[in-house]
Amino acid sequence: MAPPDHAGGGCRAGLARTGSACWRKPPDAAGALCDDDGMSRPEVRSKPCAHCGRPFTDRKRWSGRDQWDQVLYCSRGCRANAAKQRRRA
């Protein structure tokens, strides 16, 4: 029986694949797919936008300058629209 195809979404590594198996870790005898051990990403902070309410995540630029607490909006557009609403009120 052929090994399971990682291209169907089983391998979450997001890295180059060769043939039908993940190059990082071949399937074991039970047919388990790549489990990304050792490559997990750290938790990323997120909070809702003050204007639209959509969640957005911390960026390296804000973290490096300790500005995450001051960031309120997910985009320049939301910041501009919020300012327009404040001016109208």
Automatic annotation (TrEMBL):
InterPro entries: UCP037205
Annotated Pfam families: DUF2256
Protein name: DUF2256 domain-containing protein
Taxonomic lineage of the native organism: Bacteria, Bacillati, Actinomycetota, Actinomycetes, Micrococcales
